[in-house]
Design a protein that fits this description.
Length: 86
């Protein structure tokens, strides 16, 4: 869809429901022979990787849709202080 036609409330995949997305991911994980991951697991991973890479918290907060940086930090502070690689 051209950028001019996009609206923040428009569904990207109109026919895809939350349940349908979970089922599709479950099937993909089964076929790949890996543990089952949910869409939320992927979101958590993406945010964690961004913070580990040193992306400013304000940018990660905006991209994740959190209303406050403190919300992001409350959930992901361990990533910022953890010394292990993600």
């Amino acid at each position: 869809m051209p950028p001019d036609d996009r609206t923040p409330t428009a569904a990207v995949f109109a026919e895809m429901t939350e349940a349908g997305c979970r089922v599709a991911m479950w099937r993909a994980c089964q076929r790949a022979g890996i543990a089952n991951y949910s869409p939320h697991d992927l979101r958590h991973r993406w945010i964690s990787v961004q913070l580990k890479r040193g992306v400013p918290i304000t940018e990660v907060t905006a991209a994740s849709g959190h209303s406050r940086s403190s919300m992001t930090l409350d959930t992901y502070a361990h990533v910022v202080t953890d010394t292990d690689d993600i």
